[in-house]
Hints:
Blueprint: E1 18-21, E2 24-28, E3 40-44, E4 47-50, H1 56-63, H2 82-95, E5 103-105, H3 109-116, H4 136-139, E6 171-177, E7 201-204, E8 220-223, E9 232-233, E10 237-239
Parallel strand pairs: 6-9
Antiparallel strand pairs: 1-4, 2-3, 4-10, 5-10, 6-7, 7-8
Amino acid sequence: MLKLPFTHIHPDIDTSELVLVPGGTFMMGSEENDDEKPIHQVTVPTFAIGKFPVTQELWTAVMGNNPAYFIGPKRPVEQVSWEDTQLLFKKINLDSRLKSGQGFRLPTEAEWEYAARGGKDPDQRPAYTYAGGDKLDEVGWYRDNSHGETKPVGLKLHNELELYDMSGNVLEWCEDQWHNSYENAPADGSAWLGLEQGVSRVLRGGYWGNDPRYCRSSFRGNVEPADRDSTIGFRVVLFSPPGSWSGPSQ
């Protein structure tokens, strides 16, 4: 696993739990559902992403409260809306030691799928159905093994980037607004925005009560940005301008 070239960027964030994802080009989407079409080429710049979904421990340390239904410090935080995540990022970015242009945010939908599929050199790896394998029992918590609840992060197998829980456990917010297909989607890995405010935001990854088909790396969902549910969490991305992965200001 590649490590970040810097540490101590925020008092509540362990940089060993951020994974540096080298940029690359991949084919995004699938033929499974209409909203996963057309399969299209996307080039994603380098970014860093949380090894795990944001835990209740981290959320509580930053925000001073715990909205989760399934309580446990190492379980993913849930019952957080897309709008709630923006409040957390605002607070973290104000308190972080970062260079100009760097900051924390949600992953774009392209970043999320690229990371779930294992990142660079997809032609040299098996095309797994789920993040890390074709056997969901080995890589994720879903309807048949979760006993109707979230589980502490990191208990299942990771994918090629050493990312955990990208299939199942909790759905994960993305930055993008919802579109019914990938027709005219950005090809540069950026968030697909530009619609009127209040429209649905993208969810990825499946959750603890889903059938396997909803936990596929290419599956897409959406709800309103103010919605909260015990099925929905998120993970962080640390972004930085191209060529600037050299760490925070001293």
